[in-house]
From TrEMBL:
Pfam family, one: EBP
Membrane topology: Multi-pass membrane protein
Species name: Diceros bicornis minor (South-central black rhinoceros)
Cited PANTHER family: EMOPAMIL-BINDING PROTEIN-LIKE, STEROL ISOMERASE
Name this protein carries in UniProt: EXPERA domain-containing protein
Residues that span the membrane, as ranges: 27-50, 57-75, 95-114
GO MF annotation list: cholestenol delta-isomerase activity
Main localisation: membrane
Stretches assigned to the EXPERA domain: 1-113
Localisation per UniProt entry: Membrane
GO BP term, pick one: sterol metabolic process
Length: 135
């Protein structure tokens, strides 16, 4: 049942982005990288968050940049060619499938990058004030 439903989702999204209906080497390459690298980083990040590890924000920043880069590399080649594979004429497929659903993959990494920025800034200021006390 799971295989059938994922095939259906792929076919449905393929109405908005035709590259999902055939073996597009760019999409397949990015998805393999996403599953292997980003999937592994996500597991390490979960562990780092739960165990409050010092490297949590390094992993979080790395994962977010990978996700943003993957999104850019998914769409920018098609944009440069005039979007031949993207259904920009249909309101639902363009605004809901392409714009809304894919913007989630930009918004969440963007928010997590901002969170890491704020936390690293706090750590820096905390470290500089404690060093001044000892000088």
């Amino acid at each position: 049942m799971t295989g059938d439903s994922s095939r259906y989702r792929g076919k449905e999204y393929g109405k908005a982005d035709a590259r999902w209906l055939y073996f597009d080497p760019t999409i397949v390459s990015l998805e393999i990288l996403t599953v292997v690298l980003d999937g592994s980083l996500a597991l390490v990040l979960i562990y780092a968050i739960v165990k409050e590890k010092y490297y949590r924000h390094f992993i979080q920043i790395t994962l977010c940049v990978c996700e943003l880069y993957g999104g850019w590399m998914t769409f920018s080649p098609d944009w440069l060619m005039g979007s031949p594979n993207l259904n920009t004429n249909n309101w639902l497929y363009f605004w809901v499938y392409l714009v809304f659903f894919n913007s989630v993959w930009v918004l969440i990494p963007g928010l997590l990058l901002w969170q890491s920025w704020v936390e690293l800034k706090k750590m820096h200021y905390k470290g500089t004030t404690s060093r001044k006390k000892f000088q």
